[in-house]
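Page 37, continued from 36.
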């Protein structure tokens, strides 16, 4: 089992990350840390951790960026299974053994994931470690679910990939800096089946203001754009391998457009956010969206000068419905991973 950690200015998180990997029971691990010309003490921290023979360190002479760095790492390891791990994230106790048990049991699987726990402060909350069940999807079926929902369901530290399938899929896309992970999960599902460990927590995803994603202006719009580009890329690359690819691609475009419309309504009700940009993105992704009643209603209201005078009762009702939908969506994701 190989774990690859790209590192740039996250030395203050690195020890906790590596300790969570080296402490995994039931698996033999090797860790490769690649420092991408950090400006802090990250490289020194990494070299100190390399006192453990399971840890090795390499350093880029210049800052090459996340994607080239992780590609170099993933193609230099030779473990049967591989994990791409951000230096600010943590594995839960037993996560690798639980995932590899499923991979060992079913060699049709290209990757296995589980439920990630988001956290901000260390130490993270206690993890659930009991497995309720396993779920195995045909790759095409999992891909269809993602196209129907139009969003990512994986944060990252909860994923273990089969190295041979990853190498068949090819490297992460350098032109997708904010959607490369989703694009990879989709590409792997086009080549192999997908598994999930249910019940246990499989990773800790750290939420903090330094993270690359949260540095983006208009974060939710940029995220929608990244999701849209990920679907476009995967169908351009491996669509020929997927039965009914054209139908799935159309489904994904519509789902991403509907997500943009939901964000536009939220921005309208909360009186903040790039409403016009959400609407433009939705109709560009799925032109038929402009004929839907919800799109026309929001567009008409947004064009009036009475935005601030809209009925508070209607705003509150829409907010309550959205909150309920969000809770149901979260519970379904936690339980079933989709």
């Amino acid at each position: 089992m190989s774990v690859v950690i790209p590192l740039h200015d996250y030395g203050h998180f690195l020890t906790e990350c590596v300790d969570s990997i080296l402490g995994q029971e039931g698996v033999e691990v090797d860790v490769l840390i690649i420092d991408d010309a950090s400006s802090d003490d990250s490289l020194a921290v990494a070299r100190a951790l390399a006192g453990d023979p399971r840890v090795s360190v390499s350093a880029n002479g210049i800052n090459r960026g996340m994607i080239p760095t992780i590609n170099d790492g993933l193609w230099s390891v030779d473990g049967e299974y591989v994990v791409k791990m951000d230096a600010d994230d943590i594995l839960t106790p037993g996560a690798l053994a639980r995932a590899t048990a499923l991979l060992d049991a079913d060699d049709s699987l290209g990757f296995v994931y589980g439920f990630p726990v988001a956290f901000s402060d260390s130490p993270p909350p206690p993890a659930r470690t009991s497995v309720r069940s396993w779920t195995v999807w045909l790759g095409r079926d999992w891909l269809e679910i993602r196209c129907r929902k139009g969003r990512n369901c994986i944060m990252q530290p909860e994923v273990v990939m089969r190295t041979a399938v990853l190498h068949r899929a090819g490297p992460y896309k350098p032109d997708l800096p904010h959607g490369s992970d989703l694009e990879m999960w989709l590409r792997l599902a086009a080549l192999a089946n997908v598994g999930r460990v249910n019940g246990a927590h499989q990773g800790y995803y750290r939420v903090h203001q330094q993270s690359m994603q949260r540095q983006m202006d208009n974060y939710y719009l940029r995220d929608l754009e990244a999701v849209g580009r990920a679907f476009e890329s995967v169908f351009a690359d491996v669509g020929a391998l997927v039965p009914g690819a054209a139908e799935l691609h159309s489904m994904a475009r519509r789902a991403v457009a509907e997500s943009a419309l939901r964000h536009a309504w939220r921005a309208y009700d909360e009186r903040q956010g790039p409403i016009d940009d959400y609407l433009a993105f939705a109709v560009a992704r799925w032109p038929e969206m402009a004929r839907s009643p919800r799109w026309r209603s929001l567009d008409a209201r947004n064009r009036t000068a009475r935005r601030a005078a809209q009925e508070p009762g209607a705003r509150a009702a829409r907010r309550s419905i959205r909150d309920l939908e969000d809770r149901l969506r979260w519970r379904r994701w936690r339980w079933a991973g989709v």
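DSSP finds twelve helices and nine strands in the chain. Flag for discussion at group meeting. The CA atoms of residues 119 and 206 lie 5 Å apart.
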